[in-house]
Amino acid sequence: MITTPPNTPAGSNPQTVERRGACRRCGRILRNPKHAANGIGPVCARKGLAAGAVNPHVAAPKSHARYEVTMVEKDRVSIRDLGPWDKHPTVTNDAQHVVNELAEAGHLTPGRRLFYLDSEGQAAEIVLNTMIVTGFRHVPAEGADGDVRS
Length: 150
Description:
Blueprint: H1 33-38, H2 42-46, E1 67-72, E2 76-81, H3 95-104, E3 113-117, E4 123-129, E5 132-138
Parallel strand pairs: 2-3
Antiparallel strand pairs: 1-2, 3-4, 4-5
């Protein structure tokens, strides 16, 4: 389900949920694309903490999302969330890891859009900026027949 975040600026798209990533040191959410690209927040950077130094108190997921690639085209990739969600995070909750895996496999390249059927069977797009997850966008139901398109 797409929800409007609190304090959403007037004129912004209420169906896009902003999420830029998390600091690899402290685990705080990073909303600035520059900090998200570096993987470290401004406070940790000022303290001289390396982006690769992981805080042992920030829990790493025990597993990652399970999904299948349903289509790869010149301008888009489509995937389907497989679950089971009582044992694995959803694609929505593990989006950056999914993007990284698809990029490593060569399916997702800069400029390609990423569409998916989520854990509830709803079509959505994972919005990317230089391969960093910046949000999620609802896709109309007519595009949800396996060929997820906007």
